[in-house]
Amino acid sequence: MRIASWNINGIRARHEALKAWVADWQPDIVILQEIKASEEDIPLSITGLEGYSKFWNASSFRKGYSGLGILVRDTPCRPASSVLWEIPGFDLENRTGVIHCSSFSLIGTYVPRGDGEAHYAVKLRYLADMRNYIVSLLEKGREVILAGDMNVALRDIDVHRSQNKPGAIGLRSEERNAIEAQLSLGLIDIMRELNPEKKDLFTWWPNWKVARERNLGWRIDCFYLSGGLRGHVAGAKVDLDEKSSDHAPVVLDLFTEMDFSPLNKSGPCVL
Question: Sign of torsion, CA 140 30 49 69?
Answer without folding.
Answer: positive
